[in-house]
Design a protein that fits this description.
- By secondary structure, this protein is an all-alpha fold.
- 62% of the residues lie in helices and 0% in strands.
- The protein contains nine helices and no strands.
- The protein is flat, with a radius of gyration of 19 Å.
- The N terminus and C terminus are likely disordered.
């Protein structure tokens, strides 16, 4: 992945991420070309606190995982914004109120991390967005969007999306769907030779 640039393979570009949401951390993330929303980074912060941690460096490590960022003016501005918002989150964080939301948030972030790791891996290989295929690419985009909606609710300490929605079941379904989508994309990107089936058929006696 290029220094201080957005992923060439990213499902959501930094530009689209910035346009889709309004969060205090969005400008800092956009300046580094990171295709994450501020609300997702906030979720990492709350997850750190939920698990009893207190390290902003651990949060930054998750945000910048797989990236090579040069120190300097842009990164300094990013660091200042992160530190300022981290202090704000720590001051208002209530571990008792976050007990249930924190568990769900951790599950949602596991799905997000799995998708991001997959994208980073293929970005490093120089895979182009066209290799995804239109349907698979759309499915992955929708998955990332739904994850962001879930995290936005959980960041408020709420666990209710819509009436009748069981969040635990939704996250289980999303985890399964995410694995299926990534599996389908992998098959589309690495099709098996047709002759493997046509020229090597074996009769069963």
């Amino acid at each position: 992945m290029n220094d201080e640039q957005g992923s060439t393979f990213g499902i959501r570009s930094p530009e689209s991420a910035a346009a889709e949401s309004s969060h205090p951390l969005d400008p800092a993330l956009f300046s580094l070309g990171i295709a994450l929303r501020g609300l997702e980074v906030e979720a990492y912060m709350r997850d750190e606190l939920y698990h009893g941690g207190s390290s902003l460096d651990a949060v930054v490590g998750r945000v910048l995982r797989g990236r090579r960022v040069r120190p300097g003016g842009i990164y300094r501005g990013f660091s200042e914004q992160m530190e300022s918002f981290w202090k704000r989150v720590k001051q208002e964080y209530d571990p008792l109120r976050d007990q249930m939301a924190g568990d769900y948030r951790a599950r949602a972030l596991l799905i997000l991390d799995e998708n991001l790791e997959w994208l980073r891996k293929h970005d490093e290989r120089g895979t182009t967005p066209e290799a995804l295929g239109p349907r698979s690419g759309l499915a992955l985009t929708q998955m990332m969007s739904l994850l962001s909606q879930v995290l936005a609710v959980l960041n408020r300490g709420d666990t209710h999306l819509n009436p009748g929605v069981d969040l635990a079941r939704l996250l289980e379904a999303m985890a399964s769907a995410s694995r299926r989508i990534l599996g389908v994309i992998a098959e589309d990107m690495n099709p098996k030779p047709a002759e493997k089936y046509s020229n090597h058929s074996t009769a069963i006696h």
